[in-house]
């Protein structure tokens, strides 16, 4: 059973009735990124800029994301960067009060659905193998390959067989 409506795609939600929620959430997340993460190191030069400029720079660097709402708030996000014909997920997180309910797994399934719907995307990478929770979800996906119609490879890679 789905807990979320269709996710908000960050790059497509910068205008319209959800734009403030999207802009505020992404800008706040960037400015408060995990200092131990690779994203933090790669984007240290933009954190002090105004949110609107941060969003434009992220789009130019092919960053995007999915925001999953619950009760008018972002409950879970999935952030990724495009690399050729693949999307590399680098962050999935449930916000305070939403954790421990399987929502991150559901959000990553939504990420797979999103990626599959983008014609030129053939693969996704779910993290870099450094986060225990993400790797546990990845292992679950391996067990559900047939059901999800995916091929799971080492290193966090998932292929869409119909696109290979």
UniProtKB/TrEMBL annotation:
Q: Which InterPro entries match?
A: Acyl_CoA_acyltransferase
- Domain of life per record: Archaea
Q: What is this protein called?
A: GNAT family N-acetyltransferase
Q: Which organism is it from?
A: Candidatus Iainarchaeum sp
